Amino acid sequence: MTHEISPEAAPQGAAIIMSRLRRIHIENERGRDFEEQLLMLLDKAPNGTPLPIPVRFAADLETRGIAVIEAAGGGKTTAIRTVLTGSDILAHNPLTGAPRFVHVSVESPATQKSLGIAILRETGIDHVAPRATVWEIWRLVRHRLADMGIVVLWIDEAHDLFDQRSPRELDDMLKMLKSLMQGEAAVIVVLSGTDLLSGIVRSDPQVDRRFRKIHPRALAIGADSADVADLVQLYCDEAGLRCAFRNNLASRLIHASRGRFGRVIETTIDAIGRALQEGADTLTAEHFAEAWGANEGCSWSQNVFVAENWAEIDLDPEPLDLAVLRGHRGQRQRER
Q1: pLDDT tens-place string over residues 79-130
Q2: 8-state DSSP, 317
């Protein structure tokens, strides 16, 4: 398989292929586990068909939620979005013309007020009076969710809701989450975030019992190397490239990605992009090294895809203590 691409045509052809690669969805345990848990929280018709109605618990007084907890780059956001947008009963409400779910990503630093305003914005309310109180905003949020027939409220990057909070602020955030799953307009709350989210949810027994937790496992060298090699081959086939699986390429890719599924895909697509730009017909370890190294900012000797001792390379060394660094700098200036 040889590509004859003119310099003028290469960028355009590569861009089309790259766009196609980014639209590929690879089924994985995140999506399957989330869909399974979501279906268990939706009511069913007599024939077993899911309905756009949350199951009620505790004498029909409250709903339940799902917490998807994984390190950044694992692929949880893509998995949740794919399940929700692919659901026949949640992707479209014929009465409103909008989905039956709301997705909001937490902006840091987050407050109850900023989160409420963000949810209202996603439901079509662009202006909230500057002097509106937190209580007034959240009363409007609950009214708006009920008015639009929202079944699922998905809060992404939810760990930022609790970062650097005082005990009282933390307690208020947790009470807010509980309130969304109570009353006539209760919804299924989906939280997605990093490990910090797990500790916060478990810190309050009432919140903890209301959430089903999904912790996708990390990819492991050896156990998952063959599957990762198949995944890379799939993307190469789609791009019209051969792949040189030499020097433990799949295992190196797992290590370079810190075992995170989403990063495996991102690095593979970036590497293919470099191969296409240079008109190569084979994806090599050097393409991976260039793509990954550009993101990591590492030296060639510390590049997982070319180093002989790649498995021993520490990808996340302790960060510099800026306070100590400033102290040393100030000391040198005083000595001058």
Answers
A1: 999 999 999 999 999 999 999 999 999 988 888 999 999 999 999 998 999 8
A2: P
Q: What does residue 214 show for φ and ψ, rounded to 5 degrees?
A: -120, 120
Please check the confidence at residue 168 and state whether its pLDDT lies above 90: no
| Token pair listed for 263 | 């990063």
- Confidence class of residue 316 from pLDDT cuts 50, 70 and 90? confident
Q: What is the spatial distance between Cα 131 and Cα 140, in angstroms, rounded to a whole number? A: 14
Burial class (CB in 10 A: 0-12, 13-18, 19+), 206: exposed
CA distance 154 to 142: 14
Domains in the chain, start-ordered, CATH in brackets?
29-214 (3.40.50.300), 219-311 (1.10.8)
Q: Match 């202006």 to its residue by tokens.
A: 127
Q: Which two three-digit tokens encode residue 111?
A: 């407050």
Q: In sequence order, which ranges of the chain are alpha helices (DSSP H)?
A: 9-22, 29-40, 76-85, 112-122, 134-147, 167-180, 195-203, 205-210, 225-239, 249-256, 261-277, 285-296, 322-335
Say which amino acid occupies 232. Answer: V
DSSP 3-state assignment of 45?
A: coil
Give the closest residue to 83 by CA, choosing from 71, 91, 72: 91
- Reading the block at residue 144, the tokens are 């708006």
Greatest alpha-carbon pair distance for the chain in Å reads 83
Owner of token pair 């912790």: 215
Helix (H) / strand (E) containing 155 = strand 152-156
Residue pair 178/210 in contact by the 8 Å Cβ criterion: yes
Q: What is the pLDDT of residues 170-179, one digit of tens each?
A: 888 889 999 9
